Task: structure prediction
Amino acid sequence: MAATTTVSDGGPPGAFALAVGQEELLLDRAVQQVIAAARAADPDTDVRDLAPGALQPGTLAELTSPSLFAERKVVVVRAAQDLPADIVKEIKAYLAAPAEEITLVLLHAGGAKGKGLLDAARKAGASEYACPKMTKPAERLAFVRAEFRAAGRSATPAACQALVDAIGSDLRELASACTQLAADVPEAIDEAVVARYYTGRAEASSFTVADRAVEGRTADALEALRWALATGVAPVLVTSALAQGVRAIGKLASAPGGMRPGDLARELGMPPWKIDRVRQQMRGWSANGVALALRAVADADAAVKGGGDDPAYALEKAVVAIAGAARSR
Result:
């Protein structure tokens, strides 16, 4: 993720930050980078992540008013290009006289809409993060290379290209694949490694299998599983995705009620977009269902790692069990 202006590499963040573009993964990373810098300076930093439309007249003044305890705060305003004129006026006034110990983060899609606010934030000296949609294969290839570098690993050019060819344009999936390979593969990451894990999986991924299973869609999940295995997806990646899907259901189901979306995302260690997806998927789940599903995943994981004779059968059995658990309520 490139910054279009100078971005501080140390110390607390400044009064303003801009994340400009339409790539959700990069926007979320920009926000997390600002939050991490603030919490490095003050672990008790309060974060207010406002969903689109949540900023009403007077809300900004309330959030940025002096605190009795002088706490550091990060206020995130999403979809700033869509804000009404009266809210834009409030933000521009705040840009001229910011509060101490507060960082205002504006997420803006770029373009002509809402450009006045974008220009005002830049004029105020906001640190800026470029978060453009990566529509060209060369951009996605550069992204994959950067992901491996960030993980402290090197991958051959052929491996990076093979990964882009296999997974396609979804940046979150590309990032997840890089993380998975960096963690699971001790040897050099070359084209053969990528082929073993991912070749042919652009149309059916381990995450698709997991999504259909936790949604209780047995037939669709089995179809996705069989296609994924037929096109070369490693069974261990499927069990990993199934485990992530079920754990996300359990974490959200046990979270305290009434929390703001941004606070909930921080509490559970998930980006806001995933909170929304998991909330839709968890309908029909019960606490007992989560426990049964986790046991099914554990059994499948043991089987695909050498404890069973037929990894495909073990995965099918786990998918059926998870889809059934999704309807346990």
Observations:
- The two ends are 42 Å apart (CA to CA).
- Residues 158 and 191 are 6 Å apart (CA to CA).
- The first helix runs from residue 24 to 41.
- The beta strands are 16-20, 46-50, 73-77, 102-108, 127-130.
